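Reviewer comment 2.1 asked that we show a complete input and output for one of the modelled complexes. We chose the NSS case, as it is the one discussed in the main text.
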Amino acid sequence: MTNIKEALEKDLKEVSLRGWIYRKRELKDKIFVVLRDKDEIIQCVFSKENFDEKSWKELLELQIEASIEVFGFVREDPRAPNGKEVEVKNYKIFDKGLPFPLHGREEVSTIMKYRHLWIRSRKFNAILKIKATLMQALREWLEKNEYIEVNPPIIIPVAVEEVQTLFEINYFDKKAYLTQSSQLYLEALIYSLEKVYCLAPSFRAEKSRTRRHLHEYWHLEIESAWYDLKDIMRDAESMVKYGIEKVIEKNEKELKFLKRDTKILENYVEKPFEKITYEKAIEILQSKGLNINYGDDLGADEERVLTLEFEVPIFVTHYPRKLKAFYMKESGNGKTVENFDLLASEGYGEIIGGSQREDDYEILKNKIIEWNLPLEKYEWYLDLRRYGSVPHSGFGLGIERMLMWVCKLEHIRDTLPFPRLRETEILI
Ligand code: NSS
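Response of the prediction step:
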């Protein structure tokens, strides 16, 4: 058994290839089939003279996505999609298939209904390969930098981020939630391991329907003892750069298929990221004519405008304390917090949210009260400030957000095989 990549790259005479029919064209005495497998496509020609009548009839019945095996001779053919063609001598049909319901350019609702079939597309194949590289590369970076992988629970008792986005579940007749973030557990774990990370799904019952919000996404979170804001920003930049570098290195073909300009990506690896404060960001936005004031949150539109001002990703730091979560360390006499959002370029916006954490028991306790959170449920978290509290920082990176940017996709749904989105029912 050979695969299509070998048939294209090596100097083979005879091949036997398995795959699915990607395209089919019938002439009077020839059938042209483009066969696809996990990596490539190749044109296969069936000539009538080589087959008996029964076989020819069977071949005419093959549908798009039929699964077959072909045996034949490879030859150069500049007119064929990848410059080579197989003259088929024999074949085996696994399933001749029914008429395939997708032809390309379907409405989103149709694509979601047939998502289990749509994911065979070459575009999605390329995206998934890039995603695998990215996840592996980020893990590699973490290992090189002495972060230890840990596995906090998915079912949680209290909010980490906004209460409104919690997914409630019935946990043996008691309320519990699906995790929004593993941060609080990672904070507990640094007292043993100092540098930890986890890669797990997070859940958000977001009210907004946007091109960048999922209800379930893969969240890479890291936490480090002894780190302040600038330390954690250094790691965020280095990790993102490493991830992009590996994708450029390993997925040249897939990036090309997606028409992603690798020069732009190389720029992100080579040039230092921009750093601006929230205050400065507001000034820039005002100078661009946006109706925004100090104290307003930056939404997708504002982030977009900001990223188009710079050639590289931007760290926006020191947001007003009220705009951000209770656990962030205060600065600027309690006006701001020691936080950053990393905004991906070309309009993509936030891919990472991170901060130095409040390590003072009294301040943290008062903020939990001020944020109207049930203090008794955070006692265990406050214990972390009672027994050997240390300065520490961390961040969370949305894998799909980063992938969407790296692949330059229009919508976040195409970063996952079975996305959970508000506008589409869960059918599969
Ligand atoms: O809410 S975050 O900004 N921050 C946290 O959850 C921190 N507790 C993380 C930490 O410090 N350990 O979310 C972090 C990232 C954010 O920048 C996005 O990239 C991604 O998680 N994110 C999402 N991706 C897709 N869909 C949705 N709804 C979503 N929400 C956040």
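Residues 122-144 form the longest helix (23 residues). We note this here for comparison with the apo prediction described in Section 3.2.
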